[in-house]
Amino acid sequence: MYCPTCGNEIAVELKYCNRCGANLTVPATTQVVSMAPIKMGLPSIVLGGTVVFGLLIIIAGATQMSIAGMPAVATVGSVEAWVSTRSASGCSMPMTPVHRSP
């Protein structure tokens, strides 16, 4: 059982709360407060639009990578190799490899 005033866990046989001293023999009066229902239409639309927009950006980027001939699984090593082969073949797109310091 819990104290209705402070929420402290109390034994059933106690008449007063050990923490706040509230009288536990009197039933706690509860007031019913009616609240207006929450409208979730706009937040749902905004969240859905954000997710769809993000997916479109990912798909557009993957499409551009595919058109440029980038490997589907681009890791640091494969990108550096791809960049070096593109620059050696005289590709018109200026690309420089990314060098990582050890």
Structure description:
The protein is mainly α and 102 residues long. It has two helices and no strands. It has helices at 41-68, 76-88. The protein is elongated, with a radius of gyration of 32 Å. The two termini are 61 Å apart.
Arithmetic mean of pLDDT: 76
Number of helices, counting only DSSP H or I runs of 4 residues or more: 2
The parts where pLDDT drops under 50 for at least 5 residues are: none
Percent strand equals under 5%
Class derived from helix and strand content? mainly alpha
Multimerization status: single chain
Q: What keywords describe this structure?
A:
2 helices, 102 residues, 0% strand, mainly alpha
Topology summary:
Blueprint: H1 41-68, H2 76-88
What is shown here, in short?
This protein has 102 residues and is mostly helical. It contains two helices and no strands.
